[in-house]
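Box 3.1 A note on notation
Throughout this textbook, protein chains are presented in two layers. The first layer is the amino acid sequence; the second is a token string describing backbone geometry. Keep the layers aligned when reading.
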Amino acid sequence: MLRWLANISSRRLLNRIHYVLYDTYQGVTINTDSSGAPTSQFGISQELNHQLHAWYDLLPSAIKPDPDHDGHGLDDAILLMRFHAAGDIIHRPFLLQACALSAGEKPDARMVENAKRCLYHCRGYLNAVQGALTKLSASVEIFVHSTMAVVLLLTFASFSPALAPEVGDVKQLQVQAAAIIQSWSFPESSIETMLSIVRTVRVKCLGR
């Protein structure tokens, strides 16, 4: 029952995050130079991050997974994946903004800090998802798609001068993601396409 309630509350939080970050500003143009982000964006992400950590902190100790521990079982992995997926979404705009800066353009320090938080959650998701993909379920394709998404974000960050030091092990992360996806790939499936994308990206990065 506790895990069921935790999963329901995490879905509600994720819906709120999507609404605040995307629906609220749909069709609205905010003028800002490329080296920074709107002040309101920092405030919104800070509040959502606070709500995310409040959700995690309030989990009963009997079901609260340790985010710094590897080798989670299915139930713990699902909760951790929800935590890291929400954190990734909250901070992803800052990572994309940092990656879009021109060469030599100095990013706002707050942008970089939030982008690093996104990378933390991407790594966390990649570690947690292995515990959720130990057996077939209706969510396998969703989990695999999210695995591809986080490794692509980690790869994008490796091209940013401000973020590259945080992902010096990006090639190992690509191998880890490819192995996860390959275990569920079969001919002419969408998962096979995802695997091809990750492998192609890795090959492109090998020459750097």
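Helices lie at 2-23, 39-57, 74-99, 109-132, 140-157, 170-182, 190-206. The radius of gyration is 17 Å.
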